[in-house]
Amino acid sequence: MDDKLRAFGKNIDLLINKNNLSREESREMFRQILMNEQPDLQQGAFLAAITAKGATPQEIAGGWEVIFDLDTVKVSPKISVPVVENCGTGMDSFKTFNISTAASIIAAADGVPMAKHGARAITSKCGTIDLLESIGIDVECDASIVKKSIEDANIGMFNGMSSKVHPCALGRILSQIRFGTILNIAASLANPASPTIGVRGVYNEEMIMPTLETMKEIGFKKAMVFHGKNSNGKCGMDEISTSGLTFVAEMKSDGTITEYTIDPSSLDIRCDNENDILASERSNESIRFLRLLEGKESRDREDIVCLNAAAILYVSDHVKDIESGFERAKSIVASGRAASKIKEWVSIQNSKPDLGLEKLDALLCHC
Predict the structure, then answer these.
(1) I need a labelling partner for 249 at 20 to 30 A (CA). Which of 144, 236, 276, 312 fits?
(2) 123 annotated ligand binder
(3) 105, 221: one domain
(4) Average pLDDT of 168-196?
């Protein structure tokens, strides 16, 4: 045991001195963390050291590989088009409401098969799992029910902190961390449905390219990774921003990668009240979330959701560019299709559909 502690500590020293690990070395380090074979102090020191150094795609892929291989219940939805995932890593400095969750519902309403993989709140007020649970989605169900939901409703949510999805220890690890590490990237990529198209926001600009290159390394065919800034550029979000620039890296189907920025003003989008897109208390967010899907929320909230939905529609080849995707997303909300989709989702991803719909209807009365 002492030899194992020393070897683990030696690799931490390497990271502190800015040396990189191979994918295999990273995989073994993460395996020992996942299996709880190292003291908590060593586990935390490793995550801090590799984050401070700046993780390479090979190091992130090593973490993903051990989580996916050893601690992920896998499913294969029977659908005729590629499965798509979108998410934000969390741990960002500008705490918005659940934008990516609402964006995925709009995309699903347009026929994009969404396999989401999220968690409860760690540093935010309301995580995607917390929100969906509050409106009636069964977030503690078996992965097989999520698979059926993807097949029948075009959308499903895997709970990244549930033992029914990750039976070993991922929930234990995530629940103990309050800062952004490569584990946020690696764990979020361990999606049970193995999507091949991905749209994701990251907690800082430096993680854009490593995350995209990791996605390419582990088998994604098309992807977009971004980090948005608020109006003064001092805070960042794991979303496409409507109040500041968003830095983007995109991988096309031929494997080529391009980097660019999205300026909301060039799309004639402006955010009048930046505070309105910040998260509020969970009980309030549930009602505002449903109001948004019904087209009854503020323009600032609807616009940022539709801009992020546009990225999904674009990468999924439903539209030719972000601008047309934004207009498509706005029309989906206005038509009522997004509101209908959430009702369909609640009824299908549920071991007790009647109770889920009852919870949803009770909230809709306040909308």
Answers:
(1) 276
(2) yes
(3) yes
(4) 83
